[in-house]
């Protein structure tokens, strides 16, 4: 089913060019962050990370809005993005806040037990908290847009779908990871081919030099031209990944949920018996 959903998502991307706006926005924002990181440093770039994330969320929400009906142009894309923006943002903030509280509580437990958490243990703790959260809440945004659900209801809907269709959800994650690996690996080959002359000295490094090699050294080796080449590769990576993965997730959600509100109770007409009197008035038995 997941492979069929992926094919359907690609068909949608070919039929609805507006879906690629999210890829364009994500690619430009990602490339801009990379350039700013090299030109302005971590301090300035980290401040823009949240702002860029909020901007990208608008495009993701707009994409979900037209995926809901599987029709729409750029105008419908932006209108839907504005309409559903806070419906997606608020559950996201709740999830981040809850994870932060759990992380703080975990650190407090370690401290109370007399264990001083180091960087590695805190990273492991963060992963242990983040991984199940991502899996369980992966469909919160699609539930919020497709089914018009509110904050906690959207989160609960995602958890219900994941727990009841866990096998299909795992297949979805595996396919998504494989697609990401294929695209990233292909772009890395292009990046390496373009910068081959600059990267060639790395082949002469011994094991000690490789182990002590840092990202800053790589930036120095590739130089300004390499920085721009990397920015272009980042642009195309996000340009391809975001539309494909979001469209794929939307198709999987529709199939897993049936796009039917789980809390809707069908209304049935109960037949009644009676008769009309001589004046046309109905009397129910």
Summarize the structure.
This protein has 285 residues and is mostly helical.
What fraction, in percent, of the residue positions are helical? over 70%
Rounded to the nearest angstrom, the radius of gyration is 25 Å
Low-confidence runs: 263-271
Q: Between the first and last Cα atoms, what is the distance in angstroms? A: 52 Å
Return the string of H and E elements: HHHHHHHHHHHEE
Overall geometry comes to globular
Number of domains: 1
Return the average pLDDT rounded to an integer. 87
Give me the secondary-structure category: mainly alpha
β-strand amount: under 5%
- What is the count of helical runs? 11
Q: Count every beta strand, where a strand is a DSSP E run of 2 or more residues.
A: 2
Strand line-up of the largest beta sheet: 1-2
| Biggest sheet character | 2 strands, antiparallel
Describe this structure in words.
The chain is mainly α and 285 residues long. It has one domain (2-258). The chain has helices spanning 2-15, 21-40, 42-69, 74-112, 119-136, 140-146, 151-164, 166-194, 196-199, 207-211, 215-257; strands spanning 274-276, 282-284. It has a two-stranded antiparallel ribbon. A hairpin with a 5-residue loop joins strand 1 and strand 2. The chain is globular, with a radius of gyration of 25 Å. Residues 263-271 have low confidence and may be disordered.
């Amino acid at each position: 089913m997941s492979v069929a959903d992926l094919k359907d998502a690609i068909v949608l991307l070919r039929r609805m060019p507006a879906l690629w706006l999210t890829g364009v926005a994500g690619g430009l924002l990602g490339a801009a962050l990379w350039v700013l990181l090299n030109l302005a440093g971590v301090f300035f770039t980290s401040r823009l990370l949240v702002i860029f994330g909020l901007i990208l969320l608008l495009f993701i929400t707009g994409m979900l809005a037209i995926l809901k009906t599987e029709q729409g142009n750029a105008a419908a894309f932006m209108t839907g993005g504005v309409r559903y923006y806070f419906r997606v943002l608020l559950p996201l903030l709740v999830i981040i806040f809850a994870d932060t509280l759990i992380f703080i509580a975990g650190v407090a437990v370690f401290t109370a037990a007399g264990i001083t958490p180091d960087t590695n243990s805190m990273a492991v703790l963060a992963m242990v908290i983040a991984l199940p959260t991502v899996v369980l809440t992966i469909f919160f945004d699609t539930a919020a847009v497709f089914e018009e659900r509110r904050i906690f209801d959207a989160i609960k809907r995602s958890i219900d779908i994941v727990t009841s269709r866990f096998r299909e959800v795992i297949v979805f994650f595996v396919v998504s990871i494989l697609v990401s690996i294929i695209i990233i690996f292909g772009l890395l080959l292009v990046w390496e081919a373009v910068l081959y002359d600059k990267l060639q000295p790395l082949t002469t490094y011994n094991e000690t030099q490789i182990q002590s090699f840092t990202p800053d050294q790589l930036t120095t080796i590739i130089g300004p031209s390499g920085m721009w080449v990397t920015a272009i590769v980042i642009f195309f990576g996000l340009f391809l990944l975001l539309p494909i993965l979001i469209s794929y997730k939307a198709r999987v959600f529709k199939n897993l949920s049936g796009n039917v509100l789980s809390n809707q109770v069908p209304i049935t007409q109960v037949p009644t018996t009676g008769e009309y009197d001589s004046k046309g008035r109905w009397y129910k038995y």
